[in-house]
Amino acid sequence: MPHSSSNDTVNTPIVLTIAGSDSGGGAGIQADIKAISATGSYACSAITAITAQNTLGVSAIFPTPLEHVEKQLDAVFTDLNVVAVKVGMLADSSIIKVVAEKIKRYSPKFLVVDPVMVATSGDLLLEQSAITTLKSELLPLADVITPNLPEGAALIGCDVPETEQAMADMITELRNLGAKAVLLKGGHLEKDQNSNDLLITANEVEQLSAKRVETRNTHGTGCTLSSAIASYLAQGNDLSSATALGKKYISEAIAHADELNIGSGHGPVNHFYAIQAGNR
């Protein structure tokens, strides 16, 4: 059973991120830990793959041996009171199955799945068989999944939408994936002045809008948003509020991204903009 301290004066919500490591620090586990920490929760992790990565791209991926993924998950769940779990990069079907099995066994209150399947280049990162496993084993357990437009299209087998109407046409099939909610992110519709996301629940569709920021420093935005949502859920917010708070956080982190000068490619967002502003 998770250990509970006799001193209840500090009860920080604990969020577990299950994802790949980004050696450049902008995305993956590193972005997740920054986002969870910056939004006021405690971050712990299980690493599913080690990438050799920087702001210019990924040069190698080494999947964590399956047994070690299991041991990390057991170690965290048997000791820490994990309230919310965020799942990011899962390299193959076997890791997806292990993660789904552990989620069922330990029953965290909230599960946020960011289905990392399509690279910025448009290349599929998951084999088709792994996408099938993701859809059958993990997505139905999720409180919310957070696909961008290429990922949403890959999940339901349609063309990547290029208009808001085409985005809206995906709603019914996305609901059929079985998650309690879907946050379909419209950031790829670059002609639009605003970045509009759709929070799709069983009976409603809510639009979340933020002004589009011109910056090339957007590495890790998906990881950061999904982690922030998990963090805000763990703190007791309902899904609509947690999503709105997460959208506000990532929008500010993007707006302040150019205050950082990291690498020569697509740099990271500024996870700690609020702390830096407080130190000025």
TrEMBL record:
Concerning SUPFAM superfamilies, the annotation shows:
Ribokinase-like
Give the matching InterPro entries: HMP/HMP-P_kinase_dom, PM/HMP-P_kinase-1, Ribokinase-like
Keyword Coiled coil recorded: no
Q: Which Enzyme Commission number(s) are listed?
A: 2.7.1.49
Per UniProt, the enzyme's principal EC class comes to transferase
Q: Tell me the GO BP annotations in alphabetical order.
A: thiamine biosynthetic process
Keyword Magnesium listed? The answer is: no
A single GO cellular-component term from the record reads:
cytosol
Q: Which positions fall inside the Pyridoxamine kinase/Phosphomethylpyrimidine kinase domain?
A: 22-270
The molecular function terms of the Gene Ontology recorded here are: ATP binding; hydroxymethylpyrimidine kinase activity; phosphomethylpyrimidine kinase activity
Q: Which UniProt keywords apply?
A: ATP-binding, Kinase, Nucleotide-binding, Transferase
**What pathway or pathways are given for this protein in its record?**
Cofactor biosynthesis; thiamine diphosphate biosynthesis
The molecule here is called hydroxymethylpyrimidine kinase
| Organism whose genome encodes this protein | Vibrio paucivorans
